[in-house]
Specification:
Blueprint: E1 3-6, E2 11-17, H1 21-24, E3 33-37, E4 48-57, E5 60-66, H2 72-79, E6 87-92, E7 103-109, H3 113-122, E8 129-135, E9 150-156, H4 167-173, E10 181-188, H5 189-201, E11 209-215, H6 219-229, H7 231-242, H8 247-260
Parallel strand pairs: 7-8, 7-10, 8-9, 10-11
Antiparallel strand pairs: 1-2, 2-5, 3-4, 3-6, 4-5
Helix pairs in contact: 4-5, 7-8
């Protein structure tokens, strides 16, 4: 770690110097993310969290982290100091708008704000784009880049672990243009499921959306239920990958099973 500072009361910036950038393979997409494992001797599948890459310049990786109520990730983000070392792994991204999309709908809560900001920065000019963003207060919106060709529709005071999220309702209420488009979503997992089902009900094909749950309300209770009943869903996911299906389709089949068994 070479830098750490507060961007606001709810966002903290951490800059890491990567020992072997080529081996890590940070993705260039706007919602590029990394798994951060908090102690150097942790196995990559041990205690860790995924964070969005806000900037990437050679060996330097900048993570902007949304702070919420408790957890090992927040402890690390607020207490770690310059010189602290972590394990980085599982570089990934989801944002893949098709080339023929004539407009984009970006949707996120505070957890997806850093990725949304990077996507907005890297959109082509002009961009016919709407961003629906759910944050605690209007002050959080100052983090976003300003562009005349990006319309920002804020939802204030809902979601983000404080109240029920309004993101799925906002997507359902949004007027969908008739031309081919693309939707990117980053927020609470249950809301992501509702948004995905809504777009599918409109006849959208999978290459026109990337819907990702960045966190889960009541995650400890969900994890406990999954430990008891989730083997069937995992079997479906592994079989889908073995049959040559891509990760997006495999995850959707996994999520359908999870919904059927009450997860």
């Amino acid at each position: 770690m070479v830098e750490t500072r507060a961007l606001s009361s709810r966002l903290r910036r951490i800059v890491l110097r990567v020992d072997d950038p080529a081996a890590l393979g940070v993705r260039p997409a706007g919602d590029s993310a990394l798994g951060v494992y908090f102690t150097p001797d942790d196995h990559p599948d041990g205690e860790g969290r995924n964070y969005s890459v806000r900037h990437h310049d050679g060996p330097l990786v900048t993570l902007d982290i949304a702070l919420h109520a408790g957890g090992p990730g927040i402890t690390w983000a607020t207490e770690a100091s310059i010189g602290h070392r972590v394990v980085l792994d599982h570089a990934r991204s989801w944002y893949r708008p098709p080339s023929h999309a004539q407009w984009q709908l970006l949707v996120c809560d505070l957890s997806g704000l850093p990725a949304a900001a990077r996507i907005v920065e890297t959109l082509p000019h002009p961009a016919r784009t709407t961003l629906i963003v759910e944050v605690p207060t209007a002050d959080d919106l100052s983090y976003l880049p300003r562009r005349d060709d990006v319309t920002v529709l804020p939802r204030l005071g809902t979601g983000n672990g404080m109240r029920p999220s309004a993101l799925a309702d906002a997507v359902r209420d949004h007027r969908i243009p008739p031309e081919p488009g693309y939707c990117w979503f980053a927020g609470e997992a249950a809301e992501s499921r509702t948004v995905r089902k809504h777009l599918r009900s409109l006849g959208w094909e999978r290459d026109h959306y990337d819907i990702t749950g960045y966190w889960r309300a009541d995650s400890e209770a969900w994890d406990a239920r999954f430990a008891e009943a989730g083997d069937a869903a995992l079997t479906v996911y592994e079989r889908a990958l073995a049959d040559g299906k891509d990760e997006k389709l495999a995850f959707e089949e996994f999520d359908e099973v999870c919904e059927r068994i009450g997860l």
